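Interim report, section 4.2 (structural modelling).
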Amino acid sequence: MTELVQLLTPDGRRTTSGSGPEAEYQAFVAEVTDDDLVGLLRDMTVVRRLDDEGTALQRQGELSLWASLRGQEAAQVGSGRALEPADMAFPSYREHGVAWCRGVDPLKLFGLFRGTSLGAWDPAEHGFALYAIVVGSQTLHATGYAMGVARDGGEGAVISYFGDGASSEGDVNEAFGWASVFGAPLVFFCQNNQWAISEPYRRQSRVPIYQRARGFGFPSVRVDGNDVLATLAVTRWALRQARSGAGPVLVEALTYRINPHTTADDPSRYRPADELSTWRRRDPIDRLRTHLRARGVLTDELEASIAAEADSTAADLRARCLALPDPPGDALFDHVQVEENNLVAAERAAFVSLRGALL
Amino acid sequence: MTELVQLLTPDGRRTTSGSGPEAEYQAFVAEVTDDDLVGLLRDMTVVRRLDDEGTALQRQGELSLWASLRGQEAAQVGSGRALEPADMAFPSYREHGVAWCRGVDPLKLFGLFRGTSLGAWDPAEHGFALYAIVVGSQTLHATGYAMGVARDGGEGAVISYFGDGASSEGDVNEAFGWASVFGAPLVFFCQNNQWAISEPYRRQSRVPIYQRARGFGFPSVRVDGNDVLATLAVTRWALRQARSGAGPVLVEALTYRINPHTTADDPSRYRPADELSTWRRRDPIDRLRTHLRARGVLTDELEASIAAEADSTAADLRARCLALPDPPGDALFDHVQVEENNLVAAERAAFVSLRGALL
Amino acid sequence: MAPTASASVRRTLTLAKALNTGLLEAMKADPKTVIMGEDVGKLGGVFRITDGLQELFGEERVIDTPLAESAIVGTAIGLAMRGFRPVCEIQFDGFVYPAFDQIVSQLAKLHYRSGGRIRLPVTIRIPYGGGIGAVEHHSESPEAYFCHTAGLRVVTCSSPADAHLMIQQAVASDDPVIFLEPKRRYWEKGEVDTTPLADLPADLRTDLGTSRVVRSGQDATLVAYGPMVRTCLDAADVATEEDGRSLEVIDLRSLSPLDLDPVVESTRRTGRLVAVHEAPSNVSLSSEIAARVTEQAFYHLESPVLRVTGFDTPYPPARLEDHYLPDVDRILDAVDRTFGY
Amino acid sequence: MAPTASASVRRTLTLAKALNTGLLEAMKADPKTVIMGEDVGKLGGVFRITDGLQELFGEERVIDTPLAESAIVGTAIGLAMRGFRPVCEIQFDGFVYPAFDQIVSQLAKLHYRSGGRIRLPVTIRIPYGGGIGAVEHHSESPEAYFCHTAGLRVVTCSSPADAHLMIQQAVASDDPVIFLEPKRRYWEKGEVDTTPLADLPADLRTDLGTSRVVRSGQDATLVAYGPMVRTCLDAADVATEEDGRSLEVIDLRSLSPLDLDPVVESTRRTGRLVAVHEAPSNVSLSSEIAARVTEQAFYHLESPVLRVTGFDTPYPPARLEDHYLPDVDRILDAVDRTFGY
Ligand SMILES: Cc1ncc(C[n+]2csc(CCOP(=O)(O)OP(=O)(O)O)c2C)c(N)n1
Ligand SMILES: Cc1ncc(C[n+]2csc(CCOP(=O)(O)OP(=O)(O)O)c2C)c(N)n1
Ligand SMILES: [Mg+2]
Ligand SMILES: [Mg+2]
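Predicted structure of the assembly:
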């Protein structure tokens, strides 16, 4: 395998800061305490629990779809916790873990998949843009936003999430080119979860995706995306690079999509079973748990309390999701434009007069 | 400067086949005779003469626009003469020299710029696709065509021309990805003439364009595009690679657009004068001429005969261009679709009844 | 569900399965036919329209592509220039826009530009329309964009029988065809004549451009296509029962070029026309229908042509789509209004 | 021609220069305004519309971009999210399609999707239309695609005075605006009130959405926009001289949303309406105008609304464009036909 930054081995040992690709990144987590690690474990545990709740709610008909992040908790929490408040993240549609780190109420994510809204959070408030379903489109928004940060003297950096599949889209490559030419303070964060629905990532590229950056003249690194510590370190490094004015960085986080693409998918049609079991053994949460157990930090008690917290967060979320009302019918006419549009206004009037009784 | 394959130095000396990036390519022109070289000189001379005729005809109002290739004769003739009859070329809009090598009557190019047709040659007959004005779009057609060649067991390879500016377009990068993943027998041939209208090529990429291929996992090479011999050698090498089933190759031919972007452009607004004079000294035709003079192959007599041939070809072309009739008015309704379209048929009928007298 | 061999029998199929079977026939009919798109191979497409075809025809003819729509269409053009007959799948309506340039500037124009020398028998299949509770960009009705583009044929089917027939006609056509599949009707069943295209009478082989009266009536005419044909038929049922009105329903089938003669003829008889589609109204198929039918049936109209369409807003969140999409109530309200003039 | 400082005077300017001056004002009015596109900096754009602006405002505010239209629009969206007010130039009409997804799925929808939280004050300038003898892809009229897209404003100017005013209004608008520039009219001159937008009365500051009667008449109405307004005025002149007919001419100015009230009012008076544009007819602005005006002026129409448009073919080679484009003859022929009903 090509170089891969790893700070926690799959069996939970901390790599030493000696040589290898790791050396450069160790400094970025030198001050991470056991408490911080427990915090990361808590984040990942809660996020997984919420994700399971999404799957369950979909099965029960409460959500029309759910895109599970299971397996990608470390990639998302590691990168999400590397962000500073002034930073701005541009997700695709699976970054529930990053949303969690940015303080977005998961209920708002559920609203999207329930069909009560198209994006109920305030991107500016959370430094977290709306989900982007048109694969790759968000990388250009991130690039423009980062160009803006450079132009208005802002402090933040920008991170743009996308998948291995997305790397084939024209938009993503245009974003690579622009960010490089304009030296935009931008981290391209590719979660290579090995699959784009049914297509393995070698259908997207015959070389590892992090190498794409070379062709555009900016640095890149491949990190073990199931290692939350390495992901944290590498993302911090990348964000610092970006903030320094050196231009963009591409991080490829090697991970795995454990669940179907979405609840509508059936991976048994295309995915070898043994692949799944291999990756289950690399579980990102287990890895940190083992590490913290070995260090004696994670007690049964602490673990139970984290689990309880996750459960209660999920229960609360479920209750609120079930209570999520449908918007009133004529809300569909709201916010088409800032200024009033006479056609929409006329349609709304006709709608209200016909459906008035129903609203 | 980054590695650059050169077989004829700017002062016309033949580089030896020793070490350096050249070594690999010498073999591909080992059998090139003096006669062959004279043939290349003839091609370049005629092509430049035709190009000048295009500029002149535009000034006289006979063409509505002309996109000059001056300065790029070696890049085009060198690559064009590397092609075999079974190969297929996908040009952009400036490849008059390649068209010449593919046996396309230059009158048909003039017809495009005169506005009497949108593409009057038969791509299949010449192995030369129609001009593509939407920058970069043709690289995908070339990729699909090459995938087809691989699928139907054809012998040819495919070459796709594009500019330094085009390298920023999503389509071109999608083509890189596809050709690589599908192992298409395709040579991407980038004429880096340093400018995309008013924008220098460093606005498109912060690294040399040939390096882009690395990010997609296929080989590339930068050749002196003002060296017809090196271009011939490198293109032959690249075509052989492609035909061998090894997948695509990217050739960047470093050259220079001596004239304005088109006759509608005014480069004095953006281009430093000394740059132009530097590149005039690297003239591709002069280089080969000097070489052949030094070898005693090119006599005054031979040179005069080449010039005379160029002049008469141009004179003939001019005469035929002036005689190019406008198509009949209702030709605009021809070939909208293969099957008849009732709306177009009705419009044609109405047109003929209204304009009948004028046609 | 593996595709089954051709046989000239009537079978009851879902619209999805009818497309699958039609594609199977098209693949058999011409070895140059290739299917390409995201997830069309092993998975058989997210709607299983290409289910089993890769198994039968191999990876060289049923091609799982990288995730890049412009390239799907752009390389299909190249393949067509090389003599292939590509059938591209765009996974959902909302993902066709990255391919827009390749469709409107390249695919649509090359035959014209080349003076007829280049033929591009490319079919672009797009599941379209709403009503399935999907997340954003999965419920769009983009037909107006393609109908406004000269050089493209745009067709859509509303029944399993037509799905089976029309997909074969589309693939057999030497023109580029945008083939729109009414995704909310994928699971509706109907009787299908599974005779392969080549064995059908000539007029059936080539009638891709025709519209069809799917229900006769005297009092007013409804014109629709794709997913809204069923809704109009339902409306016609209700109109008969509740208002004693007899509505004629016409299925356009071909959206470009339009075959409006049956619509004009019907409107001249009924004096009233309501055009229905899911797409927004502004600069849409119903605008065109209204403009042209009015021109041709001017003296016969008792009322202006009315339109029942999606609203001129982005497609709303799923919980609002029932309000957004034309339904029986809105259609009958429009019919009522034609009687109020 | 370096841009000159603002001053509240009337000057005779070409339409191109009026746009240049209007952009200068917009850049001065808001320091967050940035101009971006291919060749907009040193060259000042291939039509010199941004001439001199980079010199005045620097490379950070007048940005020569890489050659990638999707990125021009996509990054403009990001810049707008960061508080900037980008004005994008697409070099020619035929090159806007690679940006189509970013325009129709992203730019047009983000305000709606975000429940109004995100505002995208992005202006996309596009020189459009034919009549200048250009090579392919340089003479397209893509307005229908944008008008069919909810969430976009689409406007176009037909005179230097409007060019100067409307470009400032477009940049000042908090909605995304597709600003179509009639390239064949760039060199026509007219009187321009160069008062900066901020100093104009409130109703003029915000009338971007209104259409306008540009010539009064009694016998029939012509409705057009952009390059065809001049052609319609010429036709009206000829009609007066040769047929003694008095034609009213209306300039739509805003193509989406449409301000049809003046057209309906006029048509009710004259009983006859001809809609004119360069774009092909099928599913076009003239379809929409015909459909809606017919609905609103049904009892006043002496004839169906007729349409004079580009034909439903790809844009032909330049030597045929005079046949393709609507001209005085074709317009007057249509007017004649409205009298034949
Ligand atoms: C432009 C576009 N094309 C197709 C789709 C349909 N689609 C949704 S997700 C997906 C696969 C994405 O794969 P990847 O980028 O690896 O992200 P992942 O789902 O693995 O997180 C596809 C094809 C889409 N959403 N957008
Ligand atoms: C998609 C698209 N955008 C813009 C243009 C306008 N345009 C024509 S040529 C050109 C520059 C192309 O530069 P390059 O690719 O380097 O080729 P060169 O002209 O130097 O041969 C531009 C911007 C176009 N033709 N197509
Ligand atoms: Mg993936
Ligand atoms: Mg160039």
